[in-house]
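Hey, resending since the last one bounced:
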Amino acid sequence: VQLQASGGGLVQAGGSLRLSCVVSGGRFSDFAIGWFRQSPGKEREFVAAINWNGNRTKYGDSAKGRLTVSRDNAKNLASLQMNSLKPDDTAVYYCHRPPNAWGQGTLVTVSS
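The structure tokens again:
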């Protein structure tokens, strides 16, 4: 299985970005998808997750109220909509398919 994350970039504080994760190989709808992030010098942190059919989601404390995870099983696509971005959101964002498949990460930089 391969995961390809995209959509990162440079944005000003208060702005928005939408990250995408395309999964190839395996049966996409059989698995939950998670998003994690890692900032320089910090451990990888849980951001959000969505179950196999999209009717249950879970968010890390840093994401609540600002980030929304979604999926389109017909397109093998998971998305992370990020609003009201803060400089502390600067990190490499990774998508994850349990148990151990990771995308390559996409860099999000939020300027103050």
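The mean pLDDT is 96.

Sorry for the duplicate.
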